[in-house]
Amino acid sequence: MTQKSNLQDKFENFEPFITWDKQKHPNKKLNKYRLIKINNNLYNEIQTQKPEITFLCDIKHFNLIQNHTCRLDNCECNLNKTIPRENALNRKLFKTNTSGYNRISFIKYNNTWRFRWHENNKCKSKDFYITKKRTSEQAKQQCINFKLKHDKIVGNLNGYN
Predict the structure, then answer these.
(1) This protein's superkingdom (predicted)?
(2) Which residue blocks in 32-121 are alpha helix, DSSP H?
(3) Cα dihedral sign for 57, 63, 64, 68?
């Protein structure tokens, strides 16, 4: 069964060459596309996750709207599938955060900057103490540098600073 496009009504010489095809992953809700011929010119017709939204584009501009998702509409077809770990890494900073980085906090009772992370289902932390030789800013900067090195090893790319 072939679906009728809403563009067929608008053009007289509308001739589809191939049936609807999905890009890359057939199990995911992705855009469908097909090659069509209108007045002896080849075009790509792209149908988004919502069947009522259809693009018609030149073949050379196909990659621009190939995987178009509407970021303003948060219906299920526009959301990315993630795991809880990715959601936790990409969360926003608290308003009370003084370091400007996730998982770095100042501990008042022992004057330290602490970086916390999870490894092998255990919570681990590294403390950077404020001493006579190390000011609060130096300890904070050492903690941030340690976090950035740790993020490169682990592969955390959340980009908050």
Answers:
(1) Eukaryota
(2) 84-89
(3) positive
Q: What are the start and end residues of each CATH 1.20.5 domain in the chain?
A: 84-154
The model carries a pTM of 0.48
The helix/strand/coil state of 84 is helix
Give pLDDT, residue 96.
Answer: 82
- Closest residue by Cα to residue 115 from 57, 86, 154: 154
* Segment 38-77, tens digit of pLDDT: 777 777 777 777 767 777 777 666 555 545 556 666 666 6
Query: Is CATH 3.40.50 what the domain over 84-154 is classified as, yes or no?
Result: no
Which residues partner with 22 through β-bridges? 32
DSSP 78: G
